[in-house]
Write a structure and sequence with these properties.
It contains 7 helices and 4 strands. By secondary structure, the chain is of the alpha/beta class. The chain has one domain: Creatininase (Rossmann fold, 3-Layer(aba) Sandwich), CATH 3.40.50. The chain has a 4-stranded parallel beta sheet with strand order 2-1-3-4, sandwiched between helices.
Length: 269
């Protein structure tokens, strides 16, 4: 049976409301991904991994998957290459707030935004605060990169600086999802992140970033990448997928079962 929100009738959605279903929103973006990955890489990965998460949990908890969000915020700098959909930050916040508020008005108490675009986290976090204040519902933002970092780092082939944008993590995933859209012969490490200090991690998977400072403003990029995809492979993608499925399942089971007895959720009644 399908877990896609858009394929349900309203009586079927009402049944999911009674079950207190978790709604997953894949959040991606369209923007350049250097010479070798398609511009819909973030959106494609978001849909694929959200489907994987839903498949992993659907036998244990009720779950619905929303259509993929494919347009959002990316810095103006990225617009120097064709392909970027650049919504202003407030427009993106308003759009995501509208989607989440619609779900809250229906009565869905548990929503997880599966964030697969590095620029979106602060704006999605604002949306969760707005929804909490307006509905007393506590939605979640979660990143597959963060949820898979430990397992990915155990098998990765790139050095620190290899993972940020159009990197080993994303290239490996795209080689698994749709290899016909990937051009490995054009892989290059020329845009590997080199700038690393006690305050700047230079690698999204390894953590340690102590300041908010955009990588686009730290060093030059030749082709629009920030990282090293040169040793990406499907075997690495399989490790990522397994980690995302397991770790999201562990979290979603906790999230679904968390119903503090001293809180009221009038919109769910």
């Amino acid at each position: 049976m399908s877990f896609y929100f858009g394929e349900k009738t309203w009586p079927q959605l009402k049944e999911y409301l009674v079950k207190d279903a978790v709604v997953l929103i894949p959040v991606g973006e369209l923007e350049e991904h250097s010479l070798y990955l398609p511009v819909d890489t973030d959106a494609r990965i978001a849909k694929f991994l959200t489907d994987q998460i839903a498949e992993e949990v659907e036998d244990e908890i009720p779950v619905l998957v929303m259509p993929t969000v494919w347009s959002g915020y990316t810095p103006d700098f990225v617009g120097k290459w064709p392909g970027a959909m650049r919504l202003p930050p407030q427009v993106f916040i308003d759009m995501m707030h509208g989607i989440c508020a619609s779900l809250a008005d229906m009565g869905f108490r548990k929503v997880v935004m599966v964030d697969c675009h590095g620029q979106h986290a602060p704006f999605l976090n604002i949306v969760t605060k707005l929804i909490a204040d307006e509905y007393d519902m506590y939605y979640v933002v979660a990143s597959p990169l963060v949820f898979s970092a430990k397992e990915f780092n155990a098998v990765r082939k790139s050095e620190r600086g290899g993972v940020s944008h159009a990197c080993e993590w994303e290239a490996s995933m795209m080689m698994r999802i749709d290899p016909d859209l990937v051009y490995p012969e054009l892989f290059t490490d020329v845009d590997k992140m080199e700038y690393q200090t006690d305050f700047v991690s230079a690698d999204s998977a390894l953590g340690g970033q102590k300041v908010v400072w955009s990588s686009w403003g730290i060093q030059h990029t030749e082709h629009g990448a920030l990282g090293d995809p040169s040793q990406a492979c499907v075997e690495t993608a399989d490790v990522i997928i397994a980690a995302v499925r397991k770790n999201f399942k562990d979290f979603l089971l906790q999230y679904y079962r968390n119903n503090p007895a001293d809180r009221l959720f009038p919109h769910a009644q």
